[in-house]
From TrEMBL:
Protein's name according to its UniProt entry: Pyruvate/2-oxoglutarate dehydrogenase complex dihydrolipoamide dehydrogenase (E3) component
Listed cofactors: FAD
Renumbered residue ranges of the record's region Disordered: 479-501
Keywords recorded for this protein, A-Z: FAD, Flavoprotein, NAD, Pyruvate
Organism: Agromyces ramosus
UniProt domain Pyridine nucleotide-disulphide oxidoreductase dimerisation: residue ranges: 362-468
Protein family membership: Belongs to the class-I pyridine nucleotide-disulfide oxidoreductase family.
Occurrences of domain FAD/NAD(P)-binding (ranges): 6-323
Length: 501
């Protein structure tokens, strides 16, 4: 069977849904192909369930940090209720709501495994064994995401390790959980299970949260220890086995032995492209798909004459974050429609049809204990780029709202300022409930707001946002920003006059 449509989207997670929605909203006929659940990894096994599992214990800790409220907390965490709330938020792993939404906006759904079969062709292998070939008149967008990597450690694969899906869909938290890895999944799941009362052991060869400022990982290590977790930083598992008592026994490279009921592997991800048929369009199966800023796949057959293959979300390896993938998908869906309908295409930096923010303004929240958020460059990243910067640090508790939020509040805030441009190029906040500070930092970076102008963005008192004022005070106010501006205008006028002469 063959069917011709305008656009085919392979992958029905939030990224694929966004690409399909934008193309359909422009009037194109779109079919989305999904082999598991509409809503994808984020909705059922990643973002939504993990944050739901974390929230209840975080709320309990928040209450216990406020005198007058902590006296009212007389019980412990109800783990069964937490898991039931998680089940509600993942709709008991039923995607009928997602399928109904696709139908309501006019996007076709084909359930099955989709693979490329040459230019503009996608073969769908349906659950009943039948096959349908979809032929795209204009474009195919790949949004198949990524899978966790199980490292090559002796005996690990045979020990039936957990991946992130097992952790977020847990029915009965184990008494003891070992976690291999130090990234976002590792620290969030360590925080969640420690909140359940599980004895958590973290084995992180390279420390925690290596992509953020060092003080973020240090704060989370201290926070996890405060929750009762054991931290083995710099530790490398040499051998893993599951013994006759169904325990997981992990031998470290220094001879120490860790025993747990389950082991969670959180050491990175790989693209879901191994069975995507990339070889039929000149690309390598199993590889990340290399794209330009419009998400057009580089090297795919036919790109030079007529762009048609796009890759959005995790699969292009630009930023493995749902919100960033959705941002890419919105731009790409609009671009596909513009090209198909002969409308203007805007691919200039920060244009409508490009994902410029992937390079300099990627926001990230780690819902650990404490929360860590960042956007833009770290101090080390700015140094690698050869930027002339000033790094400004203040304690989060310097904001009056922090002390009101929680007794004994502790945290840290950092700005990385490009001195030549006079703008913020990086920001990191660590502490309870700092996630809501991230958007203001993202706007400052994306908008390239001059430091002199930021002084006029007055934070309300008494809020956590007052930390912005403390950061600017530590940086120092320009002596006379208006005079500097007038001097700059005078120089430009003089240059113009000289050129005219």
């Amino acid at each position: 069977m063959e069917r011709e449509v305008d656009v085919v989207v392979v992958g029905g997670g939030p990224v694929g849904e966004n690409a399909a929605d934008r193309a359909r909203a422009a009037g194109l006929e779109v079919v989305l192909v999904e082999q598991e659940l509409v809503g994808g990894e984020c909705s059922y096994w990643a973002c939504v369930p993990s944050k739901t599992l974390l929230r209840s214990a975080a709320a309990l800790r928040a209450a216990q940090r406020v005198d007058g409220a902590k006296q009212a907390v007389t019980g412990s965490l109800d783990v069964a209720a937490v898991l039931a709330r998680r089940d509600y938020w993942v709709s008991d792993w039923n995607d009928q709501g997602g399928a109904d939404w696709l139908d309501s906006v006019g996007i076709g759904l084909e359930r099955g495994h989709g693979r490329l079969d040459g230019e503009r062709r996608v073969v769908v292998e349906r659950p009943d064994g039948s096959r349908l070939t979809l032929i795209a008149r204009h474009a195919v967008a790949v949004a198949t995401g990524s899978d966790p990597v199980v490292p090559r450690i002796a005996g690990l694969a045979e020990a039936r390790p957990w991946t992130s899906r097992d952790a977020t869909s847990v029915k009965h938290p184990p008494a003891r959980l070992a976690i291999i890895g130090g990234g976002v999944v590792a620290v969030e799941m360590a925080t969640a299970f420690a909140g359940f009362g599980t004895e958590v052991t973290v084995l992180a060869r390279s420390g925690l949260l290596g992509g953020m400022e060092p003080f973020a990982g240090e704060a989370v290590a201290a926070g996890l220890r405060g929750l009762g977790a054991s931290m083995h930083l710099g530790a490398q598992p040499a051998k893993v086995e599951r013994n006759d008592a169904d325990e997981v026994v992990i031998t470290l490279d220094d001879g120490r032995v860790i025993t747990a009921d389950e082991v969670l592997v959180a050491t990175g991800r790989r693209p879901r492209t191994g069975t995507l048929g990339l070889e039929t369009v000149g690309l390598e199966p199993g590889d990340w798909i290399d794209v330009d800023d419009t998400m057009l796949a580089r090297g795919a057959n036919g790109n030079a004459d007529a762009p048609w293959l796009y890759a959005v979300g995790d699969v292009n390896h630009r930023a493995l974050l749902t919100h960033q993938g959705k941002y890419q998908a919105r731009a790409t869906g609009d671009l596909i429609a513009a090209r198909a309908l002969g409308r203007p295409v805007d691919t200039a930096p920060w244009g409508t049809h490009v994902a410029t923010a992937d390079h300099s303004a990627v926001p990230q929240v780690v819902f650990a204990e404490p929360e860590c958020v960042s956007v833009g460059l770290t101090a080390a990243g700015a140094e690698r780029e050869g930027r002339t910067v000033r790094v400004v640090d203040v304690p989060m508790q310097s904001a009056s709202g922090a002390g009101i939020l929680a007794d004994g509040y502790e945290g840290a805030a950092r700005l990385v300022v490009d001195l030549e441009r006079g703008t913020v190029i990086g920001a990191t906040f660590v502490g309870q409930d700092v996630a809501e500070l991230l958007q203001s930092a993202t706007i400052a970076i994306v908008g390239e707001v001059p430091i002199a102008r930021l002084w006029h963005a007055v934070p309300a008192f008494p809020t956590m946002s007052e930390v912005w004022l403390r950061l600017l005070e530590a940086l120092g106010r320009p002596a006379d920003a208006s005079a500097d501006a007038r001097a700059s205008e005078s120089r430009e006028s003089a240059d113009d006059a000289e050129s005219a002469a």
